[in-house]
UniProtKB/TrEMBL annotation:
Organism listed in the record: Litoreibacter ascidiaceicola
Reactions performed catalytically: a quinone + succinate = fumarate + a quinol
Keyword presence, Nucleotide-binding: no
Stated name of the protein: Succinate dehydrogenase iron-sulfur subunit
Family: Belongs to the succinate dehydrogenase/fumarate reductase iron-sulfur protein family.
Length: 240
């Protein structure tokens, strides 16, 4: 195979401890990073472990570190990340590695729950559905983060998470802000209590990596800033 039709790809092998393994991979037109990973598993090493589902940027399952940057590999074309014919692919940062490129997502979703990013209903299933005004200011605020699909790219990009394992992280806090602004939610105080505690919104250093790397171009910093304001108001309200 001519050298110009190959690329050198270093792929993480093992768990928390391991090493990068190099593969020579055939280059194709319109090739994505996920295509490269699939090629390695199919033609070079069938024991390679990784995660994916939709392949079209809808599920976020294929997120990995590419040259040290968290990305959806199904939406990242090789020609945008290849450097001098080489590319490095690793598991998402800030999450336990199960094997190779597959990470354990439990800590990510545990924090989603810890931030009270879940609905506290005001009605039962027997009650009529409440009409919501889509132009309402709170509803507009929710819409700004509604496209989060919990891919964990922002979590992997966050240096605060890297330095503070208790920090809830941008996705969980953004979800908490969405629920807080939902007129159908019955326990806003529980949300404020959850996000103002240890590892909560006030741990954010506002570095902005979450906004820079979000594949859906969301900005969790806006949600975190909103939570900071509301928790501060709540603190002084309780003291009066």
């Amino acid at each position: 195979m001519p050298k110009e039709q190959q690329m050198s790809v270093s792929v993480w092998r093992g768990g928390a401890t391991g090493a990068f393994q190099s593969f020579d991979v055939k280059m194709e037109d319109n090739q994505t990073v996920l295509d490269v990973v699939a090629w390695i598993q199919q033609y070079a090493d069938p024991t390679l472990s990784y995660r994916y589902a939709c392949r079209v940027g809808m599920c976020g399952s294929c997120a990995m570190m590419v040259n040290g940057v968290p990305r959806w590999t199904c939406r990242t074309h090789v020609n945008k990340v290849l450097k001098d014919g080489h590319m490095e692919i690793g598991p998402l940062r800030n999450l336990p590695v199960i094997k190779d490129l597959a990470t354990d997502m439990d800590p990510f979703f545990d924090k989603w729950v810890a931030a009270e990013g879940l609905h506290h209903p005001t009605q039962t299933r027997d009650d009529p559905i409440e009409a919501i005004d889509p132009t309402n200011a709170a509803r507009v605020e929710i819409n700004a983060g509604i496209e989060c699909i919990n891919c964990s790219v922002c979590y992997a990009a966050c240096d605060t998470v890297a330095g503070n394992p208790d920090y809830l992280g941008p996705a969980a806090l953004q979800r908490a802000w969405s629920v807080y602004n939902d007129s159908k939610d019955a326990n806003k105080q529980a949300i404020l209590d959850a996000v103002s505690g240890v590892g909560g919104c006030h741990n954010c250093h506002s570095q902005g990596s979450c906004a820079v790397h979000c594949p859906n171009e969301l900005n969790p910093m806006n949600a975190i800033a909103g939570l900071k304001r509301e928790t501060a108001r709540n603190f002084f309200k309780r003291r009066t």
